[in-house]
Q: What sequence folds into this?
């Protein structure tokens, strides 16, 4: 049996920290990734696709989003098995019941809305398999929904594959997405050949038979191996699964906090920013201190990068600006009223509550002064 394990598509995610234009691209990328998954599994001739929860990010997505998601599956004619997670739990009235009323769920898509066992079949010579599924029927549960797997009986020649959504107890405590516990011994106690999990947004091997696939399209600034799907092959009941990580995501989310101390730090940051392209989403927080000229160079590099990357959240408010004598001479601020203003702003930088505003004011003052100088030369 060969199948693709994926999870946490989070269709309908709201990217509130980004602009409307950036959000539109990030939203569309999630549909593009689903279409790439469909193309990938067709090329690899897998027997089924298991989606371990959180297909949708929220119950209130529009009908258009629902139709568009199921339309993105048409590139693969084999079976899709979709499990409700904590974001799209199988409530009495849910995104799943709406999809059924809309009549947009393809015949080859099986919605696992109730706990139980579903045969995976033995198409193309694959070994017969039983899919033990534990959907979430509410956003948070405090009992292990996979516990009933232990009591399920299946034929001896049948692969036992589990699918669930939640947090393996004692493994993923930091930043878990939900409170739904799963025993770390479940594969052993339920005699599972493989347990496909969703909830953690990065690839994670709990043990050789229990895996998180992570989200196939990164949606957070967290370096935990997002952007993958898992190609899983199990030759016979009891055999160890062979798991291949396949990168499928479009955008690379980067979180940088460079500290500026010397000119080489500025040059390194400029080189790193120049290496970015339209597939990068960047959060940047610049700290440290720099001369006025170097601070201006940092700001220019950030704005140039903004035009190249898909989305950028940048802050240089913690970069302290320290004008040199050469900076002051270039601005004509070594004497007179302007020199007094610069001196006052430099003094304000010693106050932590005013340092960011003072540094920004110095940069604005430098910009205005340079503009005045250009206009004077032009005249």
A:
């Amino acid at each position: 049996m060969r199948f693709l394990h994926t999870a946490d598509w989070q269709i309908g995610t709201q990217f509130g920290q980004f602009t409307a234009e950036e959000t539109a691209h990030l939203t569309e990328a999630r549909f593009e990734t689903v279409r790439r998954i469909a193309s990938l599994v067709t090329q690899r001739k897998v027997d089924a696709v298991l989606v371990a929860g959180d297909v949708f990010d929220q119950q209130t997505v529009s009908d258009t989003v629902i139709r568009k998601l199921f339309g993105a599956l048409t590139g693969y004619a084999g079976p899709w098995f979709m499990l409700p997670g904590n974001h799209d739990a199988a409530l009495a009235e849910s995104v799943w019941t709406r999809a059924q009323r809309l009549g947009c769920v393809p015949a080859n898509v099986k919605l696992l809305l109730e706990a139980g066992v579903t045969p995976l079949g033995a198409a193309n010579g694959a070994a017969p398999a039983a899919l033990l599924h534990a959907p979430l029927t509410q956003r948070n549960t405090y009992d292990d929904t996979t516990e009933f797997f232990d009591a399920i009986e299946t034929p001896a020649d049948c692969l036992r594959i589990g699918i669930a959504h939640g947090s393996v107890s004692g493994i993923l405590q930091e930043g878990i997405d939900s409170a739904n516990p799963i025993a770390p011994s479940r594969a052993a106690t339920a005699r599972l050949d493989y347990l496909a999990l969703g909830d953690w947004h990065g690839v994670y091997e709990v043990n050789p038979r229990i895996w998180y696939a992570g989200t196939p399209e990164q949606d957070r600034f967290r370096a935990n191996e997002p952007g993958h799907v898992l190609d899983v092959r199990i030759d016979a009941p009891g055999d160890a699964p062979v798991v291949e990580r396949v990168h499928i995501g479009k955008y690379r989310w980067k979180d940088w906090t460079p500290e500026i101390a010397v000119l080489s730090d500025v040059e390194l940051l400029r080189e790193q920013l120049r290496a970015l392209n339209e597939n990068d989403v960047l959060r940047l927080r610049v700290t440290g201190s720099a001369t006025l000229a170097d601070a201006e160079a940092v700001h220019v590099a950030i704005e140039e990068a903004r035009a190249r990357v898909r989305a950028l959240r940048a802050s240089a408010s913690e970069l302290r600006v320290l004008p040199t004598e050469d900076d002051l001479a270039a601005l004509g601020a070594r004497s007179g009223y302007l020199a007094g203003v610069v001196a006052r702003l430099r003094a304000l930088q010693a106050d932590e509550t005013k340092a960011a505003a003072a540094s920004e004011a110095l940069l604005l003052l430098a910009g205005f002064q340079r503009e005045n100088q250009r206009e004077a030369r032009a005249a």
Remarks:
- The longest helix spans residues 20-44.
- Residues 7 and 52 are 5 Å apart (CA to CA).
- The longest strand covers residues 280-290.
